[in-house]
Amino acid sequence: QDAPTIATVVKIAGIQWFNRMEEGVNQYAADTGANAFQVGPAQADPQQQAALIEDMIAQGVDALAVVPMSPEALEPVLGRAMEQGIVVITHEAASQQNTMYDIEAFVNEDFGANLMEQMAQCMGGEGEYAVFVGSLTSQTHNQWVDGAIAHQEANYPNMTLVGDKNETFDDAQQAYEAAQEVMRAFPNVRGMQGSASTDVAGIGLAVEERGMEDATCVFGTSLPSIAGQYLETGAVDGIGFWDPSVAGYAMNKVAQMVMNGEEVTDGMDLGLEGYENVTLDGKVIYGQAWVNVNADNMADYPF
Amino acid sequence: MSGGPRTEAKLTETPEFRLAIIAVAVFVLMAALSPDRFLSPQNLTSMAFQFPEFAILALAMTITMMTGGIDLSVVGVANLSAVIAATILTAFAGAGMVGGAAIMWLMIAIVAALTVGAVAGFLNGILVSRFGLPPILATLGSGLVFTGLAVAMTGGSAVMGFPAVVAVIGNSTIFHVPVPLILFALLAFGLHVLLTRTGFGLRVTMYGANPLAALFAAIDVDRILLKVYVIAGMFSSVAGLVIMSRANSAKADYGSSYLLLAVLIAVLGGVNPYGGYGRVIGVVLAVLSMQFLSSGLNMLQVSNFARELIWGGLLLLVMVINVTNWAGLRPRRAPAKAG
Amino acid sequence: MTSLLTRNETLVAVVIVLFCILAAVSDPNFLTVTTLSDLLRASIVLGIFAIGAMLVLISGGIDVSFTAVAVSAMYMTTKFSLAFWPEMPWYLIFTLSVLLGAGLGAINGLFIAGFGLPTLIVTLGTLSVFRGFLLTFVGSDRISALPPDMREFSRMVIARGTTEGGDFYNLPWSLAALVVVVGLTAFILHKTMLGRSIFAIGGSVESARRIGINVRQTQFFVYVYVGALAGLAGILHGSMNRMADPFSLVGLELSVIAAVVLGGARLIGGYGTITGTLLGVALIVLVQNSLIVIGIPSTWQSVTIGALILLGTGLPAYQAKRAAARAG
Amino acid sequence: MGSPDSAVLVEMTGVTKRYAGVTALDRVDFAVRPGEAVCLAGENGSGKSTLIKILSGVEQPSEGAIRIGGEQMRGLNPRRAASAGVMVIFQDFSLFPNLSVAENIAFASELAEHRRFFNRRAARETARKVLDRIGVDIPLDARLEQLPVAHKQLVAICRALACEARLIIMDEPTTALTEREVRRLLGIIRLLKDEGVAVVFVSHKLAEVLEVSEKVVVLRNGRKVAEGPATEFNASSLTRHMTGREVAEASPGPFNGAGETLLTVEKLDKPGAFRNVSFEMRRGEVLGITGLLGSGRTSLAKALFGLVAPASGRITLDGADVPLGDPVAAAHARIGYVPEDRLTEGLFLTQSILRNVAVGRLDSHERRGFLDMTGLVGEAADWLARLKVKTPSIAAPVTSLSGGNQQRVALARWLSRAPKLLILNGPSVGVDVGSKAEIHDIIRDLGAQGLGVIVISDDLPELLATCHRILVMRGGEMVDEIEGGSITEDDLSHKLAS
Ligand SMILES: Nc1ncnc2c1ncn2[C@@H]1O[C@H](COP(=O)(O)OP(=O)(O)OP(=O)(O)O)[C@@H](O)[C@H]1O
Ligand SMILES: Nc1ncnc2c1ncn2[C@@H]1O[C@H](COP(=O)(O)OP(=O)(O)OP(=O)(O)O)[C@@H](O)[C@H]1O
Ligand SMILES: [Mg+2]
Ligand SMILES: [Mg+2]
């Protein structure tokens, strides 16, 4: 029997996050001899990702591991893939219908609450805070932020959310300007939570320029390679993420399991860090794979 | 084509002919590089499903460019129409609905989307003709407004949960021909007929060639412009419906990369962005070249960034080849008049 | 048309003042040095871009590739420095980026002045080519470990502190770059034959050719100069954000052109002033950075900006049209 | 100035210019002496502009040599020609609408001096000097686009003078000017001659040609067919040389004054352009409207065709009101307007001859939006034939035609619509004598067929040759009405100027 062809299709090619994921995919290929590779569109546009998946189907891959830009937009094309007997595994798309398994590093709301918990601790449980999302159209970002707000409302009555969700278009410059504006409009803001990996970089810069490193608490999803310099100065107090290489590896592994006819069960150990005791909820496999990083442990994550 | 008032030289000297050579060359090259995969019926159908959505946007761009204008709001209009159609479908029909009722609601949604496209185009047309805004700014601004309205309506998230019948527009085939391809073919043919066979088309061309002379020739310039932008808006909303069906959802940011692509295709297809010249066949050939390239490169697992590079390079190459023969391509300016 | 032009500029100025009043009413904190210094800083990169875009518009062309030029020059410079000379002093880093920008601009110039191709099409093509080349062959990582001197530059300030009223302000040295660019461009445009030639070819290429202006050379200069400005803006952007992000900047081009046209430059060429351009930039920056203050929900921001562009360009356009109709 | 040779300022020998397929100039010899005024005459397309372009370095000759001041010029370009003292005032003036008067005047000279820096004050100084030299006063800081045509022309002349031109070449300098301004221009040309500046000019107005020039050179089909002192020519011999045949100018047949009223214009008013204009005309009448530049003729004509919206007043055609300010309605009421500027207003230059005609008839060949191509093509071809448009192919772009033929294409568009009233603004601007006479024939013919024709012109012979009645405008008002047969050219020009 030939080695199976597994295509991992990510949201966008080339950025650190997915480069790191590709390491996992390549590792998987090296470990198992499968023909596993990763592709991604040049622009962050769901339509381009759909077109790319079309091409992969036409090429006759055996399995698709997809990180959807916009899960809804991919339903039809993934449906077609499954009709043709292609194994489909997704990641970061708990709502995806046309998938065999969706792998989530964690429950999104929990992850957001986790960031909020750290921020609330840092703020001493009181004061104004603001939230940032890469785009208002990004589902995960909104879930993180909603989870965080819910956690605050339930546990920290003395904290108040100021302003709307601030949109940063996944751009550090825009995050910077938005942070400046927030600090002008709400001079008493003490906490800021970012979602896109560039958010805390922009926020951190604004904080550092104003010399408010110690007066503010900035948390968000990011990578050490992006937020590292601000973690060092304290402009950003902590970041959270999950290791995309493990997620990439996991998707490929689960795809192979499906092809082998194996089943994933609740409480199963996928043999990967953070996925030792997965929760199965319908088709969604949840791990506990988040990592909290601050100035002290950032050296452990060189990506 | 014969019989029409043609001003072009011999067939082999037209930009369209050169483009046809390029399209064939790309096809042959890709087929040679990976014959079993590129030429598989699978792949051919897949390509036919992929390009119609942005090709329709390129047609919308084409007709506005014929007048020396441009429509930068096409993607905004497409998404706004789709969001409104999707809202109707989810609010009144829902995912479970089947049969006649579902079809009826789909029809209503389609009509609503086309109306949105027409109204949006009308607005663009008013801005350009009545208020005299440069099209590039009018449609840039209105595009932001349309996209913004779609965001405001949905709060930014996707609208989904349609009856199954909606999938017909984007995902089904009739006699093995993908429906979106049929739609595109109909629109392309329609636009071709409109531009070459009707008084309206000739007026559009003449207006594009010299707006001032059109005024002096008692062409109803404002009406022409208005119609052009309405048509562009309605074409965009058709593209929006195709995208909606193919994505089984509607969202404010779908297809955001299609805007520059549509401009690129129209220009590559030989449409003179300063107005007065453009042929649908050229645009179709440009679309095909783009799609062959893009699918072929995906097959070869070439980075998608390289695709952008190659598209841009192709545009420049074609222009350099055309430049010697394309004297009419000059900014719209009175021939060096002192005044 | 002098009166109309001044009207265009005054109109923008009036809109700016009205907007400020509105903002000050909804938030008394708006009228502080903090706002001013934040807005100034946000205008640097946009302002340099706009000056370049204005120059191209004056010469009768249009350039949509300058963002790609900027990001390519910035990213390549950063990569080069990190790979070969991490200790490279900031002024050399800046020089390298400006030179790279000029080089890429020269490619535009070659197609436009050399082959005589239409500017919109060429720059549309090079936009894709430059960006595609950058991301395919140079890299696509966001680099936040910049060369130390680049980071250092971003920390260099002309003035920084807190007023007695507790308002924070911060004027980075990069603002000086904008001042220099404005001064240099004003000098070229108004005090050199080259600058007057740019106006002349924008007014009428054929006439320019006939009185012996070297049209190609002038056009070539314009695109090289604009490329150099883009290279400068790019490296400023990277250093000010302390991140070399190859995905940033591209996508801004049309807004920049809108700002320039808002300031009175015309797409047909031959007209444009630096004051108007800076006012246009100021308006766009002001609006983009004050919607939260005014209290417009983020879901409505794009509608607001779009409507403002329509209003800002619509009013003068409509006035001009009416005036033309009156004159018969 | 010893030998006769050195007295020659500019000399062309055996110059041939070939464009793809066309020989625009065929072995032409041509010389100009200092202080001499030479007139270049010839029909449309005979090669006059080409000769000028070669003299000024805009185009390179295919064969032949050019000497300026005795020096052989190889690879002549505009800058070198200018520094050798050869300056051209092109038909379109080639000025910069967006720059100031001062800059327009000083630009070329500063360029010729290889200046690197621009000094506004010095430029104003230069401009001031030349303006004084020819004794005119134009605001130095005005933007050129704000000036009337005559002033633009003066600016173009000043620019040439600023370059210390020894030879000024003018391509059809008087087409856009009215009688009075032509007088002033001719005065300036005399002034220049006295200062030793040579002038070469092209004109289709034969009277003025003979008035100021010492020497006349006639081109036909790219060849030089006649050359001699101006005194040896008169209007008809010149015409014969240009066309190779006799051209007789007829005059309009008597208008019996009967016929029904076709057009009534009542109290038409547009502040700043024309005031309280009222007149009537009948079927079959050819009505001339004349006046000096800025007298409001063009505005009035545009108002009749709806391109300008009058503030008040009324227009009735055949008893029915014509909506004001709506060209589409005017065209629908069967009014036609042939604008004065063919190139920018009249024609779609890049489009085919056929389309240029057909665009006037789209509505009547449209069935439910679709065009009946055969009908459209047939009709357009028919009109082109009736107006004797000379072209190898009606699918060729209209740019390929000569000026006279282009004007016929514009005429054909409106005639094919069977208008009741046709307004012709400058029907023979830039058209050579031969074609001009033929166009006049067409106009008279149209009148005879019962159309109302309004001819707007400042070419007095033209008005006299075509019009039954002439209205004179001054300062926006109708000041005079003259029966066509009752007046001579001299009297008419007096009335105009008074
Ligand atoms: N760039 C060109 N390419 C091809 N043919 C040309 C070009 N320029 C001029 N010609 C042709 O050369 C011939 C002479 O043209 P030219 O412009 O010199 O005529 P002219 O005497 O100035 O006519 P007019 O009185 O109409 O201005 C014409 O047949 C014209 O069509
Ligand atoms: N709305 C207006 N306000 C002020 N001045 C105007 C207006 N409309 C026209 N004019 C001026 O009125 C005068 C008459 O203009 P018009 O173009 O009718 O003159 P004309 O004699 O027909 O010109 P031509 O010699 O070109 O035929 C000109 O000086 C023009 O600039
Ligand atoms: Mg802190
Ligand atoms: Mg000529």
UniProtKB/TrEMBL annotation, chain B:
GO molecular function, one term: transmembrane transporter activity
InterPro entries assigned: ABC_transp_permease
Protein localization: Cell membrane
Transmembrane segments: 20-39, 51-70, 76-95, 102-123, 143-169, 181-204, 224-244, 256-274, 280-297, 309-329
Any one GO cellular component localisation term in the record: plasma membrane
Keyword list, A-Z: Cell inner membrane, Cell membrane, Membrane, Transmembrane, Transmembrane helix, Transport
Protein name: ABC transporter permease
Record PANTHER family: ABC TRANSPORTER PERMEASE PROTEIN YPHD-RELATED (PTHR32196:SF21), ABC TRANSPORTER PERMEASE PROTEIN YPHD-RELATED-RELATED (PTHR32196)
Keyword Nucleus: no
Record membrane topology: Multi-pass membrane protein
Automatic annotation (TrEMBL), chain C:
One of the record's GO molecular function terms: transmembrane transporter activity
Keywords of this entry: Cell inner membrane, Cell membrane, Membrane, Transmembrane, Transmembrane helix, Transport
Entries under InterPro entries matching the protein: ABC_transp_permease
Superkingdom of the organism of origin: Bacteria
GO cellular component: plasma membrane
A Pfam match: BPD_transp_2
Sequence intervals crossing the membrane: 42-59, 91-113, 120-140, 171-189, 220-240, 246-265, 277-294, 300-318
Membrane topology: Multi-pass membrane protein
Cellular compartment(s): Cell membrane
Name the UniProt record assigns to this protein: ABC transporter permease
Organism: Histidinibacterium lentulum
Taxonomy of the source species: Bacteria, Pseudomonadati, Pseudomonadota, Alphaproteobacteria, Rhodobacterales
From TrEMBL, chain D:
Keyword Repeat among UniProt keywords: yes
PROSITE patterns: ABC_TRANSPORTER_1, ABC_TRANSPORTER_2
InterPro entries in alphabetical order: AAA+_ATPase (IPR003593), ABC_carbohydrate_import_ATPase (IPR050107), ABC_transporter-like_ATP-bd (IPR003439), ABC_transporter-like_CS (IPR017871), P-loop_NTPase (IPR027417)
Pfam families, per the entry: ABC_tran
ATP-binding in keyword set: yes
Gene3D superfamilies per the UniProt record, alphabetical: P-loop containing nucleotide triphosphate hydrolases (3.40.50.300)
Keywords assigned by UniProt, alphabetized: ATP-binding, Cell membrane, Membrane, Nucleotide-binding, Repeat, Sugar transport, Translocase, Transport
Limits of the ABC transporter domain: 10-246, 257-498
GO molecular function, one term: ATP binding
Domain of life according to the entry: Bacteria
Name of the protein: Sugar ABC transporter ATP-binding protein
Species the sequence originates in: Histidinibacterium lentulum
